[in-house]
Amino acid sequence: MNSDSVTRPRVSERVASLAGGAAARPLRILLVCEDIPGLALGGLARHVVALGNALLDAGHAVTLMGRQFADADQAEPTGFRGPFVAGFTDPVRGWKEAATGVFNPVKRPYFARRIAAAIVAHAHAFDVVHYHGHLPMVGRYVPQGIRFLQTRHDQGSECITHMRFRHGQVCTETDPRACAGCIHPAPGPLRTAVSAAAVRRYRRETAEAFATHPVVFVSQFLLDNLRRAVPDGPAPQAHVVHNFVDEAALRQVAADSASTAGTEQVVVHMAGRIEPAKGIAACVRLLLPHMPAHWRVHVYGDGPERAALAAMGDDRLSLHGHQPLAVVLASAAAANVTVVPSVCEEPCGTVILEALRLGKPCHALRRGGTPELVRFGAPDQLRLHDDLPALVAALLAAGGAASTPPGGQSASVHARLPELLALYRAGTAAVGC
Prior knowledge:
By secondary structure, the protein is α/β, with parallel strands linked by helices. It has two domains: 3-244 and 412-426, Glycogen Phosphorylase B (Rossmann fold); 247-398, Glycogen Phosphorylase B (Rossmann fold), CATH 3.40.50. It has 13 helices and 15 strands. The chain has helices spanning 13-21, 43-57, 97-100, 107-123, 188-212, 220-229, 247-256, 280-287, 306-310, 325-334, 350-357, 388-398, 413-426; strands at 28-32, 61-68, 84-89, 128-132, 148-152, 165-166, 169-170, 215-217, 238-240, 266-271, 295-300, 317-321, 337-340, 362-365, 382-385. The strands form three sheets. A seven-stranded parallel beta sheet has the order 3-2-1-4-5-8-9, with helices on both faces. The two termini are 20 Å apart. Residues 1-23 and 428-433 have low confidence and may be disordered.
């Protein structure tokens, strides 16, 4: 998909006028994210922190609500400069779904009600609540009188595993009965019926949440995919605001990093969970046998396939595991090229945006929301491929391509603030879609 073919829903004139008319009044904003705190900050958590700090810089009063985290002393510092409230316990543990081999129809609505209850308990102190999380039906349990919206960062609006990936392939099924195969290899009639009931309830409550409060998608791909799977899911209040990064922080990282560009060594940077859907292990296995002796691959992240990569025993490959965000960004800034080999459909990859705004060539697959990100780089900076063999061949052919000044549209969080503030100020006003 060419980036020029992507048409983003725009904030309606009524919403824009409401935003402009009250633009001088600072807002009291509660950001909610169950990924914070954590042992490592993923793209969603980084999105929330960047947004919170940008809103603080713009003069708004921002509080971040997250989870009570058992390993809080070991958690990665978020970098958020405002107050933090632990509003609920970890909403992903328990219920033994893997042991029983079924998706429980009650589990996700139960946790959604708990998060919603925490929001309602604090909402009186804020003008708007903005939820970034994995339970899209939370809005169903938040009264319409509370100014609430949520941002959808993954395919969890219709997929109970949030990724639409199974058996090594992108999943295109829309029948809830097919979802039973994602929790049990041979579910049988009873398990299929229970899991299908869970998915139907999940999608129904999500559609009700989207009909109650505005919802933002970080790519057009996410909204289109939801429409395909759940035709009655998206409401008129749906809107697309692309993912963003803290460009000021990236400029500082770039200034502080010792780049390998122009040296004999060529460094390839990868960051993400080392699991089949992300394609890191598969890409490394294809690349290493053909990689020149002076090339190095640095992988940041952990996951079930890390041990297999370590067993390869190749000194050109460095596995760094989980590292603080500052360390990962410094590696990206110092490297010659970033590779994002996800074979799943990335919604709007943060690692890709970081590479583009650091001026690095970036190789990725032509799927999901990734083609929409071409607009945030210079011409030919984001290089899209049909499969991993084609990506590896193109990477080797390009060699140690030089860095360039960032080009294309800004991916800065500050560039997105007007759109989000318009939604904040409009409350439950409809957003043109």
